[in-house]
Structure prediction request, 160 residues.
Amino acid sequence: MVFLSLFLSSFPFCIMSPPPPQEQLNVEPLFVQPKPYRVHLEPGKEYYWCTCGQSKNQPFCDGSHRGGPFKPKKIIVDEAKEYSLCGCKFTHSESGFCDGTHRKEEGIRKYNEFLLRANSKLTEQQKELKASDVGRYLSCKKNERNKQCMVTIYCTYSPS
Prediction:
């Protein structure tokens, strides 16, 4: 890093180019859910729809995009009613409203990618848990009545 700094400073004619626009970065938002958010919006009030998919306050922006290429979309409506805001984050609507992309091939493909990533994370967590001491105390018993797996965690308690 220091070598690069010294190297560039020795060439005053060297010009650093600005970063490419968001469209050229090929950065995609995080898939959040395969259906729209039904929300009641009031007329004249400003709402900011999350475009990155990282907000903990979906479908609205909480600032989680900061430092990245995404910016929230401002929404102002004319009448008070229930609106459908995009939940998959791949809408082609400029305003952030659901356009049904989640039901089309593009949206289904993104949902499948989302599920594969989530499954990979769970598999890794399961491996880590089995490798840990806690994993030795886990047992999973299938409940035949409702076909669910019940996880029981056994732990020891020693008062200090």
Summary: The chain is about 25% helix and 20% strand.
